[in-house]
Structures are given as C-alpha cells and as structure tokens.
Batch of 3 targets.
Target 1
Amino acid sequence: MAGTLYKKPILFAIVVTLAVLAGTIVMMVLPMFSESMHPKLANLKPYTALQLAGRDVYQEDGCFYCHTQTVRPLKAEVMRYGEYSKAGEFAYDQPFLWGSKRTGPDLARVGGKYTDKWHYKHFNDPRKIFTGSNMPSYGWLADHQLDPKDAEARMQALGFPYTKEELTELADKTKLDALVAYMQTLGSAVPKKPKQPMIAPGDKNPLINDTTALAEGKKIYEMNCAACHGVDAKGDIGPDLTDKEWIYVQSPIGDDTVFTLIADGTKKDQEFENRKAKGGMPSWGEFFGKKKIWSLVTYIRSLEEK
Amino acid sequence: MSEATVYEWKPVKGFALSGLFWGAVSILIGLYISIQMWMPELNFPPYLTYGRLRAVHVNGLAFGFAVAEIFALSYYIVQKLTKKALVFPKLAMIQLYIFNVAIVAAAVSLLMGYTQSKEYAELEWPLDIGVVILWVMFAVNVFATIIKRKVEQMYISLWYIIATVIAVAVLYIVNNLAIPASLFKSYSLFAGVNDANVEWWYGHNAVGFVFTTPILAMFYYFLPKATGLPIYSHRLSIVAFWSLVFMYLWTGAHHLVYTPLPDWIQTVGIALTMFMIAPSWGSVVNGYYTMGGNWDKMNTNYLTKFFILGITFYGLQTIQGPTQGLRVVSQLIHYTDWVPGHVHMGTMGWVAMTVGASMYYTISKIYKTEIYSIKLANVHFWLVLIGQLIFSISMWILGIQQGAMWKAITPEDGSLTYTFMESVINNYPYWKMRTFGGALFVVGMVVFAYNIIMTVVNANKSAETDGTPAVATGGK
C-alpha cells in the first residue's frame, strides 16, 4: 500500500500538506488564539505619529539587523541593559523588531538612558561618542522632512489614535527627530526598579590617594565618559568637571555624592546636597561596580580646580 | 526510449544563467558589506548603507540566486525523471521574464528602504504578490508535468520538489500577511510576541524549504548521475524524507530562546530541533554509503567532491544548528557573529557546492557538450572550500569571544568586566579575516561563472559552425 503513494502525485501532495500543517498548526496557529500571545502591559501606550515615523525609519534603514530589542533574563544581560523584556511590551509592535544580531548593543532599555542631545550627536557621528564604533552616520536623516499626510495614512492603517495638531506639527520635524523620539520610547512601559544604594551616605573614598586607581580611573573616563564630558573634561553634552561648580552651584560636594551621581545617574529635579539636577546622566553602577567608580571619583577629583 | 521526448531546455537555460548573474551581483554586495563592518566610511547614505545593502545581499542570494537555480534545476530534474517535456513551456518563459523584472524591482525597492523588516520576508506587499504569482506558475508546470509523466514511480527528487512547492507557498503567504498603508508601506498583520512566532516559524522554514529540500532534490538526482552509482538505500530515503518534512515546521522557536515567547513553545521547538538531526543525517549517511567502495571517484570524477563536501557541510550544519538551539549554548552564542558563521557554512558550503556541481552537470548535458575546463572547476572547488572555512571558523571563534565578553563578571566586585565597546573593538581582526575568506570565495564563484559561460559560448559556437557537439578544451 505504502508503495502506491509514490505513484500517485495528488495523494502524495495531500499527505505532504498534512505533514507540513501538523507542526504549523500546533506551534503557530493554535498559540495565536491563546491569551498568552497577546499580553499588554497596563501602562503601554500606542505610538504617537512622531514615534511611529521614527519606528518606520528604524525599519527603513535596517537598524534591526545590528541592534536587538529583547533583554534576555540572564544575569549579565540584565546588569548590562536593564530589566529583562516582558511579553506585554510589544502589543503595538507590527512588526516586532527584536532582531537577531548584536553588532551594536541591545536597545530595549535605551529610552531615557541618554538625553536627546546625546542621540543627535551620536547619530551625526557615532565615532564622536565611541571612537571604536562601526555604526554608519545617520545625520543625513535631518535633511528629510516628515510628511503629515503619509503619517496619517500610517496611523490609520494601525488604528492608533492621533490628533490633527499632532500631524501638522510633524511638518517641521525631520526623520532624525522622529528616530530620536522613537529611541526615547523604547522600554518606557516597564517601570524602572529603584536602585539599591551601593554606598552609605558619608562614605569616604577608600582609593583617594591611590595612584593605580588614578590611572584606572583615567582609562575608564576616556573609554566611557569623555564622549559627553569632553576629552579634557571641560564639558560638552554633560557639564564641565574641572570647575568648582557641581549641579549648577559653586560649592564643594562630597565624594559620596559624586559616587552616587555616577552610580545612579540623575533624574529631573532629583536632589543632591540641596541642588536640583536637570537629569540626563545615565547610571553606571551595575556596569562599573564599586571599585571602578571609586577609581573614577579619584580621577575626577584630581581634575578639579583647587 | 527517451529519444522520442523533446525536452524544453529554454527555461532551464534562462533560469540557470539569470541565477548566475544575480548570484554574482549579490555575493559582491556581500563582500562589500563585510568591509563596511570594519570600515564604516564605506557607508554612502541613503542607498548604500549596511542596513539597506544587507537586505539586498540576503534577498539577492535567496531569491535571485537560489530560487532561480531551484526553478532551473527542478525543471531539468522533473522533465528527466518523468520523461516528459514541460507541459507549459511558454508559461515557464513568461515566468522567467517576470522573475527577472521582479528581482530588479526587489533590489531597487530594498535600496529605497521599502521593507517589511522581517528577515527573509523584507519585500513589500506588491512584490509579495509577484512572488506568489511566480510560485504558482512554477507549481502549475511542476504538477502538470508530474501528473502527465511517462514513468510510473516518482523518484526521491520529485518528492522533495513537491514538498518545496507546497511548504514555501504556505509559509510565504502566511508570514507576509500585512495591512497596506500605501503602495510601498505596510504593517504586519500580527503584533509583538505573536508576530515573532509567525516570523520564525517562517524564517526557519524558508531555510528548510529553500536551502534544504530543493537542494536535497538536486543531491539525490545528480550524485547518482555524476558518479553512476545508485542511491544506497531507498528505505532510508523514505524515512529521512517524511521525518524531515514533518518535523521542520515545529522548530522555528529555537530562534527565540530566552525571548518573551511562552516557554512551552521554546521548549517544544528546541526538542523537535534535536530530533531533526536524524532525518538530516539520514541523507548524509545515504550519500556516504552511495559512494560505497568507490571513493576513488573523489579523485577521478571532478563533480563527486562537490557533492560529498556539500553533504558533509549539510551534516555539520545539521549538528551545529540543533546544538545552538539548546538553551545553554544559545545563551552564549545567540546574537553573536557565531550565527552568520553558521548560516554561511550552510549557504557557502552545502548550497553553493551542490548547486555548483549540479549546474556543471546540467549545463553540459543540455548544451550537449563537455564542461569548458575541469581544471577551472577544480580551482573553483578549492577556492570556495577554503574561503568558506576561513569565513565560518573565524566567525565561530569570534562568536564565542563576544558571548564570553558580554557575560564576563569581575569576581572581586561582581561588576561587568567589559563595556560593549570593548567587545566591538575585539571584533575587527576577525571581521577583516572574514572579508579575506569571503574574497577567496568570490574569486571561486567568478571562476565558476566564467567556466559555465565559456561552456555555453563554445557550445553555441560549434553548433553554429558545424552542428557537431563541442568537446572539452580544458584540463583532464
């Protein structure tokens, strides 16, 4: 009986179809009808017209070929990028943009990590921020205006809510503005966990007069901090670190506060020794660990005007 | 017996040579983007940036090269195995013209940034409709010719071709379902986690039914033809075929290990991926045993080594692939350069070797001549082999290093040892090594193309002058 199958092409084709459909139905079709495939976080919002335009640019220029948007629940990965990705974060993502390769870092938690200014500088010339970067420059996106009519058709296709004013405002925005706006939404639906303080208030720098720590701090500074504070530490996107001013006030600040600024970063209106921050400093605590941050404090303090 | 049949070789020739052209263009783009990886100044926006060219490279080779050769060699194999001329030769020629127009449109649209941005399904919706029409044309000719066949029993290669026609149709249509916003822009019908699951159900099986089943059809047909040795076991072929066709569709989720996709889908996907070793190695073992005591043919018949090395890389690929699916391995090498190393062993090793040898055989048969130069074919073989090994091995070493650097934690204070940038800087020597390997491979493929073209040119010349078949002018 089995032998006749190979003499009957129609029957053969039917059996092949059934074989192909078995896995298809169990693994792809049936899950589609289960709740677990369509979760939505409580504070997840549809993209605005500007954010969606940015997401479209992300697609157009193949950003997903080099950047992923899923943080795996692995220790080092959560330390590097932040809270692991949740299924409910992606309900408005058509298509999903998780990617499959990290030529550049994961971007799932990049929203709010850097200031808009940082992003513009980085897109214009990635090597101005990271000297070893191989990312192409995307400053040319600033030469392309957005088209409100096109944006409307796109919002309608996805059924996202929008207002007329929102669309008219797009007319004086560029593709680069849109891309930056999109960057800032990534991961915004997941609440950031409060950071455990790494040191106690009033802690002294144990590496204060340590010359190896000074050299180590210099290396870390050049690798990670120079992009925003300048190679000479005289400020660029971030403030000058060589003057007497700390968070817009001309008065000295404790080593423990400098440590906390580096470890936790700053949020708008956050208070540090009775000064109000404007936000924009990313947090480096999990990345560097205590020893490297103290080394960095040693180095930064050595730059300060006496 | 077959003397009476006048076969339709025009579509075979057309697709074979079109594929050769698009293949050459696409591997040159591949070489170029490999240089962009370590020389970002070579990105010329907006059209010639890595993000756009990568799509052209992958689609050019999958659709422009692989699918063209699948059309060409399937039309050859189907006619030969049914002893029946193609039922609709004119349809096949129309298919050829539409195909070439579609490839040009595809390349231009991807350079313009029109993309659905799903891997292997980048083409926007109007082109998707074109692809479906082309595939239906292919299916009509294949099925019509098989139904009107003059040989009762369908040989193994026909099974694989039928499976290819059916599976690709199902996969392509479902994954490309989209909501158009304009002529050149659409959004996936599926969202988030569900979209990811549909995409990798598709993505993994696009590999399965474009780079595996039709290539196995070629292997099962051309290995016995080239060597004169019958396939070792018919029963093994049956077991391998059905288990492969059944299991492939379950496995896509191994691309989504440790993502928010529900755990059970990941686990079932990984488990079935492990089972896939059996049917894959069924074909590998069948190939090796077909050689039986005739391994001297590796030396005496220039095509044999292509097929045997091809199936060897298929065997390695199908051990490496399932291993990568395991959670413990995935967490180290996923998202690293290991993965392009893996992919390129399959495409540059298994696919390029098998298709290359099948083309040498087919072109010399349908032009009733010998290959232009066996010596050049041997040069082609070694360049392609060495180029591919340098490419893959350097990417595997790099992938393990990247994975290790990303997860390294300094014991003294539990902080991450390396910044991401440090891992990028570590990549450069290996990326340059890949370009070197890739360049060797490209030279090998250029030699291949030259050899095929010269064979055709000589055959046409001698057909014009005296109508007698040309003979080999090359080495032994």
Target 2
Amino acid sequence: MNDGNQEIRVGFVGNPNCGKTTLFNAFTGARLKVANWPGVTVERMEGMTSYKGIPIRVIDTPGIYSLSCYTLEEKVTRKCLEDGEVDVIVNVLDASSLERNLYLTLQLLELNIPVVLALNMIDIVEERGMEINLPKLSDMLGGISVAAVSARNRSGLKELLSAVVNPNKSIRKIPVVAYTPKIENKISKIQTILKSNDKSLDNIRWYAIKYLEHDEKIMTEHPIQLDHMIDQNYEKEIISQKYNRIEEIIKACLVKKEQGVQRTDAADRFLTHPILGVPIFLGIMALVFFLTFTVGDFLKGYFEIALDYVSVFMRQLMIGIHASGWITSLVVDGIIAGVGGILTFLPNIFILFLALAFLEDSGYMARVAYVMNEIMGRVGLSGKAFLPMLLGFGCTVPAVMAARALPSERDRKRTILITPFMSCSARLPIYVLFSEMFFPDHALMVAYSLYLVGLLVAIAIAFGSRRLLGRGEEDVLLIELPEYKAPNGKTVGIYVWDKVKDYLSKAGTTIFLATIVLWFVLNGGPSGFVTDVENSFAAMIGRTLVPVLRPAGLGDWRIAVALISGLSAKEVVVSSFSVLFGVNNINSAAGMSNLLGSLGSFGFNGVNAYAFMIFCLLYSPCIAAVATIKKETGSLSWTIGMVLFQIFIAWGAAVLVFQIGSLIL
Amino acid sequence: MKLHEGEIGKTYIVYSVMVKDAITRRLEALGVTELTPITLMNKKGSGTVIIKVRGTRLALGRKISEGIEIREAASHE
C-alpha cells in the first residue's frame, strides 16, 4: 500500500476513556493531558511517529460512542473521517469492556476505510481472568488486523504500528454486519440511487445505512430523491441488529471468568453511598487542602533559604560590578523579590496537583458527578457540571474547556460562568501568605474557608442564573464510571510535571514581565525617576480606585495596583506586594513580619485581610482564562459582561465582609 | 417497574426506554436497548442510579432512570 516514504495518516478513534490519549502519548512522546473521565480530549491533537522509516502522522480524536451526529465530539470525529483526512483508522478499544466498545467498531467498519483494532488494557483483561480469542475476533470482523496492546505498560506498540503500515490485504468484501433481508434490500436500492447521483462516492454502503437512520448530516449534504423508500426511521432496527452481531462475536471470542465481588463494586459501596457519598467527598477535598498546606509549607522552608542566598549574592554581585543603583534595585527588589517570591510557593502547587492527579487517574472524579448530582440539581445543573468546577481548583483554563462535555449550550455557559469562582492554584499563594500573616493560629481553616466560599458563591450564582437563563433539562445525568485502578506513575508524573512546568514558565514570562512593568511604573513618574513612590505613575493610577475600594477595606493605592496587576496572573498579586512594599523573600517569616508591619502602619488588619482574600477569590479571572472563555463561548460581549459581573460580585462580597467584620470586631 | 424502583444488587431486563430522543440514542450507543440485562448497583432516594450494563458502569439521572421500564430477569417472557 505504501511505496517510498509517503506519510501515512492514522486516526485514533474510540470510546471516551478507552486509553486513546495514553496510547497516543506512548506513540508520539507528546505530553498531552490524560484524564480518567469522559470528555477530556476536546480538541484534535496531532503528533508524529515512524515505523521502519515510514513517517506516520497520528491524529487523536475526541472519544465517541457512536458515529451519529448528536454531540460536538461526534461531529468533529465524523468530519475528520468522512472528509478523507485519515488513511487508516486505529480503533482503540477498552478490551475489558469489549461488548460496548465493539458497537463503534461495527460502525467504523462500514466506512470503507482500513481499520486496525487496538485492544487496549489487555493487561486488565488478563488480571481479571478473562481471555479474548484474537484470531477468531479478527475473523469475525472481516479479517482486519487485531493488536493486543497496553498503553500503560507500553506493550504491543510495535505490533500495532506494523499492522498500521501493512493493513491486512486479504480483507473480505462482505459486510461485517448483515442486516435482515428487508433492510439489506433497502440498502442496495439506496446505493443504486446514490451511485447514479454522485459517482465520486466510494463508501456508498455507509451513506445508504445513514440514510436509513435518517442521519441529518448525510441527508443535507447528499440530497437524493427516495420517494417511498424510507417510510420510517430504521435506526432502532439497525442498532439492535448491530448488537445482535456483537453478542455473537462476544459469545465466540470472549472467555469470561469473573470471580467474586470486584474491588470497584466494593469501593463504590462506600464512595457512592447515598448518604455518606457527599461527606466522603468533602473529606477527601479537605485532605487534599490539608496536604497542600502542611506538606507544602514543610518543603517551602528550603526554597526560602535558597532565595535568600540568591538575593544576597545578586546584590553583592551588582555592587561588585559597580552597577548603577537603579539596575541593582530593578534586579534585586523587582525581579528577584517578585519572581523569586512566587517560586517559593511551588511546593504547595506541586502537592495540590499531585493530589488532583491521583483523584483523576484513580477513577474517582467521575463518581463525584454522581455524588454531587442532587446538590447540583437544586441549582438546575447536572452533576456532570461539577467536574469542570473541580478541575477549576487546579486551573481555570482547562476547566473552562472541560465544560464542553456538557450536552447543552445553556448549561455550558452557566458552568463557564461559575467555574472561575473555584479557587485556582494561582490564588493559593495569596491565601497562604495572607492567612499565615494575619491568622497564624488558624491559617489552614481560613484558607479552607475561602475554597468553601468560592464553592458557595458558584452554587448561588448557578441558582440565580437559572432564573435568568431559564430552566435547563431536568436531571439527565448520563456518565460512564470507569473502573478504579491504582494511579499510574507515568500518567500522574506527566500531569504534575506539566503543571509545574506551566507554573515555572509563567514565573519566567507573565510574572517576570509584570514585575518589571510594575517596578517601572513604581519608580517612574511624570517628572522622570522619582525618589518618593507617592509621586509615581503607579500611585496616580492606584489613587483613582481608592474611593471605590475604601468601603471594602482596601483603600490604599498600593492594594489597588496589586489587584490591577493581578489581572495578568493571580500570582502577580503576591509578587506585586513584594515590589510595592519593598519586601524581599515575602513568603519567609522575616518577609511576612516586614510586610505585616507596613500594612499595619495604615490600619490594615485581619478583617481587611479577609476582605482582600475574598476580593481576590471572586474578581475577574486572569487574562489567559478570560481569553479561553471568549474562545469557548464565542461571544465577546458575553465575556466582557461576565468579567464586569465578577468584579462587581467581588466588590460586593468584600464590602459585605469588611463592613460586617468591622462591626463585630 | 421503573429502573429506580429496582433493588440494589439485582439484575433486570430492559423492557422499554421512554426518554428524550437524543438520550435514547445515547443509551442505545451505550448498549442500553430493549431486552438488555442490567444490574442495579446503587441508587439514591432522588432517583439517580448506577447500573452495570454490558460490562460498563453508568450513572443515570432521575429523568432517565424513570423512563427505563424494567422486568425481573426470571419473569421475563
């Protein structure tokens, strides 16, 4: 089939959660995100690999259950296949759930594109004492190549590539699913009409079957006159006849020896318990934050020592080379204080993402949709909408993208609206710093309370927006619950490393630039360099906002400037404090007491600090998140409206906290 | 009886699926069709259920579980 070194384009197609993305990564070495709940591959990904010198372009498609046209994922995948964008389909199957996965296979085989079967998770099949007769399976599917692989253990990959490069040439021409004579008769009649109508169609059986299923896409793209040929929708009959065929295949090819109660069933008895489910979930989240703060803080000390050393060393170096005062100040008080200060929070971020990766890879995440379904139902959203919110604890950007898995446009927008209220990891440094400074004895409780406030505000706004945007569909949760598994070291490793890398590159780019810009507006004024920061540009900008922020207890121009610069990335709020108040190593005990003194000098106390944290929790997400929201909703006006709304909510909540707090204390 | 009226741990046969078209199709693609055996794994008072069907676990909301009519596996004709 392949002569010379012409590139082969291979499309990876399969059900959600069958390990497509893991397999894709194993092949291309790409570090794509792998998650253990449906809907995570929302965009098509491409990568390159090769076999015996033949370049192979691998395309990862979103997980789908069927080749109909009802969801975004199905449309993306179908377009890719129907438009001839792939030469070979690698149909990835979760071999441990063969019966359900074969439904898509039977549809793919009708497309008339060479198909290679990749039976993934073959190790799990073996672990469970099951056996699949591969030659028989290949035979019953018309002689296509079948490869047993394990993306986790990286086994069987060579065999799969070899099958891709040399798809079985002796494939029989007879259809894999022979429908009843009534349907076959109609198929052949429609084929004749299609052929006379458009000679370029090469997979007319596929089109004919889709016509019988009343497939909208085909009917509008290839209109033909069928008169009374399709008097009804034959979709149900076609589906059930496909499943009849699957049953025959399963009977002949699968030897099942499932013994005893499986671990998943046992674990689910507790984790999805009708009453205990919610407390267990809240307990797990509390544990995640407890670990984030305690273990993270333990590791933090070493980072601070290193930062102090670098700071002192750089200052001496600058003096040593006789650098001018302002450059020394820019490097040491600007860049090292700002960027370095942010880096000391890395241990906390690391632990948070490690815990989230464990939850995702173990299979627990999808259960949360079931557990939270009733609570979300009260505010008119399905439990499935809780998954993007949960991801929001990590970063708002992927969380907003994950909302695509929701079936209706309205629910997607509502979920996108509330996801930014979930405290992303960038807000963590703000909480760590301010709760430890102002509430040293209850720092953990204060920080956890902010996570809960974010969650409650999100739920309250979902409730309010239900009235505004109308009721959604009633409880139509439908989600697949994967089997629990021990988290895979590599998957968790990639996930966490990705996040740490993101954080480091953000420190090196956005935060770095924001810090430099801030240093300049702080040290420059209308008359050039200023010696008194009160005359700087920063002070001028900040002062205009002071009257608005005063009722929230945030009436200082430096706080206003920190909040504005936080729009570039929320971590910048903390680095800005370093620069604005001239505090080096802000996260250390000395740095904190230094900043505490400066803040205290204008009466900033615990109530102000809590109002400040509430404001940071709720106000507009960072630029990257706003851009993602614009892209996902496709509406600039909606996005701007959302940002203004969130700033307003933040201001209102902060005012409320400050005014009530000041009355009580 | 309706799916959510079943007993936890018992296996039933799907008798009919009467939910919105798009959801029917989704269920069909997942293998929840008439005469399919399903096992009720867990349920909540609200009608949200977890079922095991064709080797897969699915969580279904009330609106769906109410629309699935089931029969006991033994008494199926």
Target 3
Amino acid sequence: MPGRRVLVAMSGGVDSSVAAALLHEQGYEIIGATMKLFCHGEDLPDRPCCSLDSVNDARRVCQQLGVPHYVLNLESAFGRDVVQDFVDEYSRGRTPIPCVRCNTFTKFRDLARKAEALECDWIATGHYARAHDGDMYRGRDHAKDQTYFLWGVERHVVARLLLPVGAQTKAETRAIAHRLGLEVIAEKTESQDICFVPDGDHLKIIRRELGDDAPALQRGPFVLQDGTAVGEHDGYARFTVGQRKGVPGGFAAPMFVVAIEPETRSVVLGPRAALLGRGLVARGMRWMCAAPLGVGDRVSVQHRHRATPVAAEIVRIDGDEIELALDAPLSAITPGQSMVLYDGERLLGGGFIESGSSAPRRLSLPVLV
Amino acid sequence: MAPPIYLDHAATTPVRSEVLEAMTPFFGARFGNPSSVHRFGRDARTALDEARSRVAACLHAQPDEIVFTSGGTEGDNLAIIGPWRMRRAQGRNAVVTSPTEHKAVLEVVHQIAREGGEERLLAVTADGVIDLRSLDGIVDEQVAVCSVMWINNEIGVVQDIPAIGARARAVGALMHTDAVQAFGKIPIDVTRLPVDLLCLSGHKIGAPKGIGAMYLRRGTPFEPLFHGGSQDRGRRPGTENVAFAVGLAVAAELQLVERERECARLGAMRDALQAAILARVPDAVIHGARVQRAPHILNLSVPGTDSESLLMALDLAGIAASGGSACQSGSVSPSHVLSAMGVSRGLAGAAVRLSVGMLSTDADIARVSDVFPALVEKARRLAGAA
C-alpha cells in the first residue's frame, strides 16, 4: 500500500488551499509548497497568483492545518523555460501559452523532483482535473476544467497525482473553504491573467526582455491575403490570429487577423471565412495515454481554452509532429496555442499548434470505429 | 519524534530567562516615558541611563557614545548614511564596503549611490576575507565611511578590522563595523580599536528582536535619519524602548561573562560536527575553513545537492538550518557572499549554514552528525538516479 505523505503545490488561492485541507482531513501527511516563479520587481504589481501575499496566504493555511510549508524558488527555471519562450514566440509571430510550458517544464517537473527528495508518495494540486490510474480526465466542473493546460505533464507524474477539487464544482470548493474556516481564502478573486504579465499587458514583458527596438514591436504593414497593403500597425506582437480589435475598417465585411508573417512584419487580414480551418498541424506532441495513438485513429480535439472540441482523425505522424483532419472546421487555429486531444473525458495528449490549413481531408482507409 | 534541533543561532536566538526577568517590570509598574518630568518618567529614565551605561561598558565606550536602535539593519543604516550625509559636503562623497556584507550594508551603499554618492567595493579572496591590497586606490581622501562586517553572518570568517580600520582612518575616512555576529565572540574595546561606528543586535545574543545599539565615537560627524524629538540627543528620536534596552544590557553582559567558555564550547561542537560530516561526506566543501572563523558557524556545500531540498529535508527531520540569505517570501536564493568569493553557482546553490549557540548540546551534534550525512546520501542517490 502506498504511503500517505503528499506534497501539495499551494498558490495561496482557494482551490489549492481546499485541496490541502481535504487531503489533510482524509488523513494524508501534508507538506505545503508555494512556487515562487518570478521576482516581485518594482514593475510588477501584486498578482493574484504569485505575489508575496499569496505565499503568506499559503503559509497561513498550512499553519492552520498544522503542517510544514516551504517556498520553492523556481525563478531561474521559470525565466528560462517560460518567460524567454513567451517573448520568443511573440517574436516569431505566434501566440504563446505560457501556462502549459510552466506546467510541463517548471511546476510539475520540479514538484516531482522535490516529492522524490522528500519521500512523498503523492503530489497534489488544486487543478480542476481528475487523475485515475495514470490517466487524466476533465474536471467534473466543465466550466472550470483545466486539462487544456495540463497535457504536457508526464504520465509517471499523473500516476502520483491527487486532484481533490477536480471532482467538484467551484461553488462546492468555496463552500468547503468556508466549512473548513479558510475564510480569507474562500472569497479571493480568481487569477485570470498570465501571472507574470503585469496588467495583462504582454508588450511590457516583450519590451523588458527584448528592448524597445524588437522587430515584433516595430511598425509593419497590414496586408490582405493577396498581398495588397491596406495600412500600418504598431507591431505584430499586438495581434493574434482571430483578432478584430485594432484592425482597419472600411471593408465590405469585418476583417480579422488570419496570419502573422514576422519576416516582413506583416499582419495578414481576411474575412471571417478565412479563419476556418479543416486541418491542423502541431509539434511537440506528447502522449499522456498509456499507448500512443496512430494514423487513422479518431480523437476529439480542442484548439483553445474553453473552445468546444471537434472530432478529428490523425492523418500523419512524423516524430513529434502530428496532423489532424477535422470533421468540422475550427475557427482561428492559432500558431503557438495548444491543441489537446481527448477521448471523451480522458486526456490523450497534446502539442503546440504549428498551423491550420484549409486542406481537404486526406483520403484514407475507412475508419472502423 | 525527537524534539527539533535548532542550528540557526546566527539567524536569531531565544530571549534568555534572565533577560526576560529583567525586562518584566517595564511592561508593568515601571512603564514610564523616560522624557516625562514626573516620578514615573524619572524612574524609566534612570533605568534607561543605566542600561546605556552597561551596554557602553561592554564595549569600553562612554554612555553618550551608545545609541539604541531597533537592531542591526537600522544600526547599519544610521552608521553609514548618517556620517556620509555630513561629510559629502566636505568632498568625501564615497563609501567603501565589501561585496560579502550583509544586505543591510550593501543595500544602504546602493542607496547612497542612487542619491549621488560613490560606491566602492573592496576585493575578497576565495576564502571570503578582504584582500588588504585592494584597499590601495579604493580607500582615499574622498571616502566618507568604510564599512566592513567583523564576522560574516553566512560563513563566519573574521575580517581584520584593526588593520582595515587603521588604513581607513589614516586617510581620514570613518570606520564602521557591523559587529552583529562578532559581539560576544570577539572581545571589543573601542578605546583601542580604530573604529568610529559599530553596530550590534539584541536578538542574536538572547535579547528580544527589535533592539540593538550603535556605538558612535565622540566627535563623529553624524546626521540623524529620523526627526521629531530630542531623545538620544536627537540622534535617534522617538520614545525609547526602555524594557528592551534593559534586556539588551543584561544579554550583553551575560555574553561577555560567558564569552571564553561559551566560545570554546561552541567551537568544539562546530568542529565535531564538521569532522563528522567530512568523515561521511569527504567531498563536502567547508566555506571559510582555511582562514580564521567564528566558532559558531559552519557553512558547507555538498556537490550534487541543492540547499532548498536539503533544508526542507532537514526541517522534516527536525533540524532547523538555513541557506543563503532568505528573502521575504522565504525562498532560498544562491548566496551573494559565496558568489563574491568565486564559488561556482552549483556549489553556492548547495550551501547550508548550521550555526550552534546557546540551545546547542552535544546530543544535538551527535544526532545531526548522523542525520545530515544520511540525508545527503539520499539526495545524491536521487540526483544520480534522475
């Protein structure tokens, strides 16, 4: 029988605090840990997710539970693997998803290492997701489901993962927080933005890391898909595929960003229909399920946080690159974002979107599903 | 589980029972404000003056040369900024210190640089002692204050304050030393010491947190940082903390009475611990081992480990130690002291400080001698397997 010692990643928020408290109630031996991901420099106001107050909140919850609490300093790893990649992706004209990289390369990897060092049998977090027998499933509260951000977690880590709030709704979590006397924590506002981006302004970070003269922040042309220049923008890092805000008007139909071409600093515009894609290519594919799927297998794919998944077929796998043919078109398939594969509720794996395509579905052998 | 072992005396110490007893009346019947004209005030004033005299005597100083502070950080701020503000007008705009100082000195010097002063850093050797040759060309007629910590709080190395102070004063610079770790370990006689300012802190020696003292040699130019009252001759306005001042006096006297015997006891324990660890972890790197070191501090790095994990494992095993300088959040960053000594990032990131003191016993040392190597071996097995 596995032991009962568990390392709980605690952000100071209600979800992870309740996770710790629930496990404590169930008789687990809790060790609380708060990950410090970046320094609270003067340019960063207090953030709901990583501020000193959050560390203090987590410490206070641990004190209340009578369990030890530590702060894990992941600043250098976070800066290297997450912040640097974040600005590089924008430079490449893509729209990064730092939470995935943080979970994949920073948080869970370090947690697993620390759990090992401290002889913890389990790792726990406050994510809205469920884990059973090495597989991960969507959180029961679909409105809160966070599996979209968790596809990069390694299977051996999932096997040791306890996700107590994943089986309940956010409202239930808040109610439990009140029942357990975690009053201060219970009604904290949720962190919505990217934790290290002050005021939701990602340009500040790009400017800080790459300087004011970074190409992604320089003027460039708005062009139509046929190459016609139709105006100027103040830097392509301000745009993402599917965006309408900041795009010039005066066309017969509303125009959207359909592509970003960093070589010419062009932001390509097109009508709504041009956003639709029936194919999708992703790289950095990782499988979480026990046996990786292959060409011809049917999956359900989600291409944005909170997007409705669509059915698809795997039409090509080359190393860590995968291509899908979609049963129904998806709008704004955005390079840099994650595409996550599911089998119903079960998470199969995911990758970083390389491109969407309007290519028709490749003819393949009949699918016997 | 056995009771926890406290090996972090360089961070803080508990209030001694004698100190608590001496302070107690001032939380009750003897509550007066020392500045008041009535009998309550007179009573408090008498106690405060006596405390000041007794602290002064511990340093062979005059009572009027003692300024009570809130502790080491405030003392360092006062002792560097105070004289610099007076002397910058006289063409002495530079402040000299070393890169291995406590942040209470380093950050003050950075602040002075932001306010238009000049920051000059001495060189330290790989052992963490100041390279006296580096004083040439750094300590000159433009220097207002030279500030060097007597015993380094992280690795315990002892600086040659008499030599550095003599050099500083030879060119008319004022000499300040942060003696927070040194007090009670090194005999201090300011009548023979080429030092103009010196700071100590109560909570490192069995007095409460929130009290300290600054020695300010008579005639030293000094501009106060606080304004608003004539307490402490206007050098540090604000109603005095009589109880804590009394506590500091008692704690300081006890330190001096016990100094020789306690230093021998602590040194023996530290050396035993160091030998025991080296016997089982022969490649452990002891920082500052080749030079004169305070008896209570053992700072070491075990290759292939990291201090964050090791400190957590030690804590879970009931042993309280510390890493580099802990930041406000409680996270551990690689020590700036070790970095300044040229210690590699990997080794600096593995540093653990064990500091013995009044609570330490031979039994503690025996247990830590056993547990520490075991935890190290486990951490290395895991690192090797990863």
